[in-house]
Structure formats: structure tokens, C-alpha cells
Amino acid sequence: MDQQQITEAVRSRYSSIARQVTDGTSAHCCDTTPTCCGETSAAAASGNTISQDLYTVTELDGLPLKAALASLGCGNPTALADLRPGETVLDLGSGGGIDVLLSARRVGPEGLAYGLDMTDEMLDLARHNAAEAGVENVRWLKGDIASIPLPDASVDIIISNCVINLAADKQPVFAEAFRVLKPGGRFAVSDVVIHGGLPVGMDESAAFRRDLSSWSGCIAGALTDAEYRAGLAAAGFTAIDLEITRRYTLADVGAKLPMWAQTLDTATVAAIISRFASTFVRAHKP
Length: 286
Prior knowledge:
The chain is an alpha/beta fold. The protein has 14 helices and eight strands. Helix 9 links the parallel strand 4 and strand 5.
């Protein structure tokens, strides 16, 4: 399985979700693949608790319903990122735009929030949501998070919500994030991280990494905490910190296991899943 296969699987899945949200049908992205990036209403319908209650009622007030329905995250980076009035924010993999719209509020009319996504359907949905919300200090960019279409040193803070794990190769993503941040800029993302690595002797790891549905479901592409720290440090970041915001259990995954887990006993699957956690990752550009 090559990197292009992974990218196309991710693009296809999230384009489909955007179309379903736009058409007014439930995406139910958790119904076919256990995922840590479940769509808000579908997560509730299928019993997946990971993506529920990430945003407060106050935060959602005034936002279009479709922005919430297209929320595919595992955290709320805007609540943890200490956004300040007048700053320029970039959201990597902005989807339907919920975190961009929330960021635009926090940075105010003197600030600017960029949303970068590789899917036309998500970008169309995000533009519609911004127009409906009457938010003007936003800009939408089409592109790959490993090749950001912005100049060097052009943003104050980078956020992202359960997206970097979807990248087939993370190191170019970290390098590009470092490039576009201003000196003193911050990296503040929510992502799925494998804390402590996979259990020793997990012979199924190769099958685990080959499972395309688990890639697009935010599982197979997750980095370990050590890999995350090393990748950010190699790109030049300092003050790297990983804070677990929710550790997963077998109950969070749902009833239908991915193919790589279907031959394993329950205790083994539970041990594997317990290593995964929604994590807030902070770092600074010197």
C-alpha cells in the first residue's frame, strides 16, 4: 500500500461525508468503520462517545447546524490554543469549517482564520457555513497539509483537529507547519496518539497499518507519543508537550471491529485500544 492509496482513501471518505451533510442525510461515518473521528450526530446515533460534547452550547450558538454536523474531530483545539485578538490562525484539514469559524470569533475582526482542506466538497460546505454565519475574517485554501499554500512566516498559530494522523507521511506536515509559522508561533493541535506505543509483540501491526478503513478512521495512521515528539523536534519545534484529553476504551470503538481486529480476542483488542488517546499537542517555533 503506497502513500497515494492512503491519500485517496481519506479524500474519498471525507468527500462523501461532506456530500451527505450538504444533502441533509446523516453521514454515519462511525457506522461502517470504528473511528476516533466520528461525525457529531452519527457518533451519538451509533453510540460512539469520542466525538460527542467537544463544543459547548455557547460555542455552537450562532454557528450553522451543518458546521456542527460535519465536525469530525477528536478534540476542541480552539478552546485550548489560547487564541488572541488580531492573530492569524491556520487550521490544517479544516473540513466543514467549525474550528475556523470559532477561531475567527476569538481573533476578532483584526485577525484572520485560514482553513486548508484537500476536498472540494468540504471547502464548498465550509464557504456556505461561513456565509450563513456572516463571518468575514476567514479564507479558504485548497491543498495538502504537507504542502501549505502560504508564504513563510505568515501565521501566528496552527491548529488542527484529528487530521495529522490521516497524512501518509507526517514529517513534511511538521516541516511545513514550522515554515509557515512566524518566529514565536505556536503549534496547537488535537490528534489521536498512541501513548506508550503498541503492545510488545503485536504481530498484527503490519495488518493494522495496511487497513485503509482504519487509516481514514484516524487509527492506523496515528503516531506514538515518542514519534510525535521526535517528528516535531526534527522539524525545529521546541517546548513540545502532549496532554491526553481522553483515553479510549473498547466501548468507544463501537460494535463493529475493523478487519485487523476481528481475529483477535477481546482482551487483546482492549489492550491495543487503551493505548490510543485524544491528545492536545503543543509546540513552539523559536
